[in-house]
Amino acid sequence: MTLHLRAEGLAFTAEERAWIAAHPVLHVATSRSYGPFTFADETGAVRGLSIDYVEQLQKLTGLQLQLAAPSAFADSMAALKEGKLDLMMSLRDTVERREFLSFTRPYISVPAVLLRRRVGGEGARAQHEPGDLLPDERVSVSRGYAVGQFLSERFPENPQMVEADDRSLLRRLAGGEISAGVMDMAGATFLMRTEGIGNVRVVGDVGFAYDLSIGYRRDWPILGRILQKALDQIPTDERQAIADRWISVNREPAGVPRQAVIAGVAAMALSLLVLLMMFIWNRTLKRQVVAHTEQLRHELAERRRLQDADHARALAELANKSKTEFMSQASHELRTPLNAVLGFSQLLSSDAERPLDATQQQRIGYIDSAARHLLVLIEDMMSFSRLESGSLVVEPRAIDVVPLIRRCVELAGPAAEEAGIGSLSFDPSPNLPLALADPVRLEQVLHNLLSNAIKYNRPGGWVRVRAWTRGPEVFCIEVADGGIGLSAEQQAQLFQPFNRLGRSALEGTGIGLVICKQLMERMGGRIGVRSEAGESSSFTVELRAVVA
Length: 548
Fold this sequence. Notes:
It is a single chain. By secondary structure, the chain is α+β, with helices and mostly antiparallel strands. It has 16 helices and 19 strands. Helix 12 packs across helix 16 and helix 14 packs antiparallel against helix 16 (about 510-520).
């Protein structure tokens, strides 16, 4: 077998060439959920930043780097220790791992950040979340990651909870089951985007960075020299292209003046405000859909003798699929830079070592407020797109709904106070059973209903939340208000997408209740409304009760 061992100026010694000839195939560990480094997409294919580096290494060395089936991080480490796998990409060098692995020099560095669940209703600015761990506060980390040992040494008074993987950590944090978690920033922003998690945010830097290298078998030192030569040969512009392809959030460059950073964040916020104009695509898209429908109608008229009803439906579904794909892509592309603005504005405003003056704090506040308003709009668009495409995950299970409702009412308190609402109350019936619901999605529905009840109320008005059962199998939640009410005509149009019911002067997209209706149906429940124009409105959510 002839090996071409000199690619783009890279040369190997005779010893290295002999080793490659004797070991032409190496087995590389991969993970199903270590995005954006390695992850399995919807087709099952393994993708990510690490895989791009694997392809570069194969070209430069002539080795065949065979990807193992994706598995949990801890399982991959066990397989490396037992010699069943030969190397693993994007791995941090630690004392424990050096017992059975050696490492190349780091080729990328990613900071570890503290994550918290965002608090505060949509109608008001979110309350301030602590940027550091509180005394004796529990903090969650993913199993087998190096940051766990760092936190044990740096924060010994904070107990650790170990999660199965990063996806589980984020979902438990979003659902309010845990209060704080630590992840690398690249993985956190990647999973928040791909999983549609919008109520988790970056609140601080824990002082730890993942300097990521290639970990390889300790008994193969010559493999380390081969891999290091190949890594050194990858051009800087190619390394940057790989990083830009998978990591959306860039760190603040060293040496840049703080005023320039603030100006840069302000410029990003202004750019996002300009991007807000893209939401006018709603009207443009409607016109395009109408035009496309007319074009299809003409084509169907010309081909009516040759086409049947099934073909006509296929064309209509194609038009709807194109619309859904456009909505999903636009939402993702807008939300990625917005996460960067929110994360860095929070880091700037909470930096105790280099505090901002009053004027700078005020400007950061404007950036934060505008970015949060955009985030609400974008999250609604993403939820609507994922619901239409059928990709939004809804996992109903038996839960105690009363604490969840009480938490939603408490979070709506600041918005109600700011709007001048006289009374916000929650009155549950005693001894309520469990109900079948996805806690994250049910909380999304209740936040929307409470936000509407506050938004469309009047000064000194009231908002009342009740919970009771209707018979043994129906769990009911009512959100009622003494606001401006709805006419019979408005009620008939209530669940139509993008229909603001003539209330365009108030903030909103016109799809919040549409999302609520579809989420309730996906959980096996339903939503209804009773209202009188100028008097009051009452929205009732019905879930399946768990019969003991």
